[in-house]
Amino acid sequence: MNGNTSIKEREEEITEEFSLFDSWEEKYEYIIDLGKNLEPLDEKYKVPENIIKGCQSTVWLTSEFKDGKIFYKADSDAVIVKGLISMLIKVLSDNTPDEILNAKLDFINDIGMMTHLAQTRSNGLLSMIKQIKNYALAYKSVASN
């Protein structure tokens, strides 16, 4: 999916993409487009245990640990949230647990995301990040045993 690009490089790609837009209306449209391009999540993963707690919308997140790297898949019933989770997946998927746990995710502030999201959406974004990192923590402990 992401080849050999680092988390930082992927963050920079997103920051550059967002710099092409003049208004937040255009940026929201772009986020929605990202969500539309997110690979659909198989219905078998849309179960209560995969729902991220703390999100106003329903967000399902699942992961797979393969060859020392974590691969995430997600979906949401809200288009903007689907776009947000797609950005997180683009940046964090296909990395080791340590790389994910150490990711600063500066791009979120660099593109002004936290200041332009409603409080409930900001809290949801933080919940998504927390759950992604929780998966990384769990896989790290499994891998070290």
Question: Which descriptors would you attach to this protein?
Answer:
two-stranded antiparallel sheet; 2 strands; globular; Sufe protein. Chain: A; 145 residues; mainly alpha
- Indicate the CATH topology: Sufe protein. Chain: A
In the CATH hierarchy, what is the class? Alpha Beta
Question: Structural class, please?
Answer: mainly alpha
CATH architecture level-2 label: Alpha-Beta Complex
Question: Which regions have little confidence, pLDDT < 50, spanning 5+ residues?
Answer: none
User: What is the element string, with H for helices and E for strands?
Assistant: HHEEHHHHH
Distance from N terminus to C terminus (CA atoms, Å) equals 28 Å
Structural Rg:
15 Å
Q: What proportion strand? A: 5-15%
Q: Can you tell me the number of structural domains? A: 1
**Average pLDDT score:** 93
Please tell me about this protein's structure:
- By secondary structure, this protein is mostly helical.
- The protein has a single domain (7-144), classed as Sufe protein. Chain: A.
- Helices cover 54% and strands 11% of the residues.
- The chain has 7 helices and 2 strands; from the N terminus they run H-H-E-E-H-H-H-H-H.
- Strands 1-2 form a two-stranded antiparallel sheet.
- Strand 1 and strand 2 (69-76) form a beta hairpin.
- Helix 1 (7-19) packs across helix 3 and helix 3 runs parallel beside helix 7 (119-143).
- 32% of the residues are buried.
